[in-house]
Design goal:
Blueprint lengths: L4 E4 L3 H10 L3 E4 L5 H6 L7 E4 L8 E3 L5 E4 L4 H6 L1 H6 L1 H8 L4 H6 L2 H6 L55 H8 L2 E5 L5 E5 L22 E7 L6 E7 L10 E7 L5 E6 L9 H4 L6 H8 L12 H17 L1
Parallel strand pairs: 1-3, 2-3
Antiparallel strand pairs: 4-5, 5-8, 6-7, 6-8, 9-10, 10-11
Helix pairs in contact: 5-8, 10-11
Length: 321
């Protein structure tokens, strides 16, 4: 781990300004992803701004009937909250499906949204990776790609190609719920980003994971008024616990068969195609065909296409049970 300086911010605006004015600075809260990356020298911040004193630990009702979740609420506390378990079951299930109990005790809501890909080439400094070193190439294309993206990725340009996936579970559930991300900028102004616009596809800048500006700090995530319906999260992985998703499906299914679905493990961001949801009463095959239109799997991960359809089918069957 390389040397770095450190400070503890007292207000969100102070934290945002500190990161913005210091080249190479980063925020730190739970640190469950950042510290691992620093040990491997994949992330080499020159300065850490600790945000743990910012009093962003509350889960509060909103005037619209939803919930406002502070950025520093831990995954364990969010999944255990009685209101979340009752009204946002897909979110509670997704969080519990991720990581280990020890990590969930430390990981925060904002940090979970910002976690970086688990592409093996991103974690290997000896290998070219456009996400880690822009313009160096993509070792995953032509390499071992079983875990990686089948849709929404860019191929064909060695300088910008990337087939990494977003690794999170919580973000997939938040995408199906249409959550919103609240932030503060370095100048003290605030804004709200729909979760649909928060994570990015790789495009020409695969090293940039989100649409946050330099120094912009997440302060909360707001959940809309409860959607009702049956809320499910199915995660398919290589072992029963503590593994990232090959494919995951977050769903809210109403009694008439209509609903919403978002899929994890297949793209650079939680993958949701609202137009595909109109086909939910027709079954999983119809939804999957539209959801995965334009997919470009590799030889190693082509199995994800039928796996999405089968996982969707299992979710829909469970919703009817």
């Amino acid at each position: 781990m390389r040397p770095f300086s450190y400070e503890r911010a007292k207000t969100p605006a102070e934290a945002a300004a500190a990161v913005a004015r210091t080249p190479g600075a980063k925020f730190i809260a739970g640190g469950t992803n950042l510290l691992d990356l620093m040990k491997l020298q994949i992330e080499t911040p020159t300065h850490l701004v600790d945000v743990q004193d910012l009093k962003l630990h509350q889960i509060e009702p909103t005037a619209e009937g939803g919930l406002r979740v502070g950025a520093l609420v831990t995954n364990t506390r969010l999944a255990a909250d009685e209101r979340v378990r009752r009204d946002y079951g897909v979110l509670a299930r997704a969080i519990v499906a991720g990581a280990s109990g020890q990590l969930r005790n430390k990981a925060t809501t904002a940090g979970n949204l910002l976690q970086r890909t688990r592409c093996p080439y991103f974690y290997d400094p000896a290998m070219p990776c456009n996400k880690r070193v822009p313009g160096s190439g993509c070792s995953a294309i032509g390499g071992y790609s079983r875990q990686l993206a089948v849709i929404g990725s860019r191929e064909g340009d060695a300088r910008t190609a990337c087939i990494a996936t977003h690794p999170g579970d919580m973000a997939v559930a938040m995408r199906v719920l249409d959550a919103k991300v609240e932030t503060v900028r370095p100048n003290g102004s605030t804004r709200v980003l729909p979760i649909a616009d928060f994570h990015r596809l790789p495009g020409n800048t695969p090293h940039v994971d989100t649409n946050l500006e330099r120094g912009e700090l997440i302060t909360a995530v707001t959940l809309p008024a409860p959607l009702g319906g049956t809320q499910l999260y199915h995660k398919v992985r290589d072992r029963a616990s503590y593994a990232f998703a090959l494919v995951s499906v977050a769903a809210v299914v109403q009694r008439d068969g209509s609903g919403r679905v978002a899929v994890g493990g297949i793209a650079h961001k939680p993958w949701r195609v609202e137009a595909a949801e109109r086909d939910m009463p027709r079954g999983a095959k119809a939804v999957a065909q539209r959801l995965l239109a334009g997919a470009r799997p590799t030889r190693d991960n082509a199995f994800k296409l039928p796996l999405v359809e089968r996982t969707l089918a299992a979710v829909m069957a469970d919703a009817r049970a």
